[in-house]
Amino acid sequence: MALPLVAIVGRPNVGKSSLLAFLTRQLVSIVEPTAGVTRDRVSAVCEVNDVYFELVDTGGYGVDDCDDLTEDIERQIRYAIDTADLILFVVDAREGTVPLDKQVARLLRPYSDRTVLLANKVDEPRDATNAAEFSRLGYGEAICISALHYRGRADLEETLLARIVDKSDGPPPDPVMSLALVGRRNTGKSTFINALAGEERVIVSEVAGTTRDAVDVRFERDGRVFLAIDTAGVRKKARMVDSIEHYGFDRVERSIRRADVILFLIDSTAMLTDVDKKLGYLIASEHKPCVIVINKWDLAKNRAETETYGDYLTQLMPHLDFAPIAFVSAKEGRNIHSAVDLASMLFKQSKTRVPTGQLNAALEEIMALRGPSAKRGRRAPKIFYGTQISSRPPSLLLFVNDPSLIKQDYQRFLLNRLRERLPFEEIPIRLVFRARRGRPGRK
Question: What is the pTM of this model?
Answer without folding.
Answer: 0.79
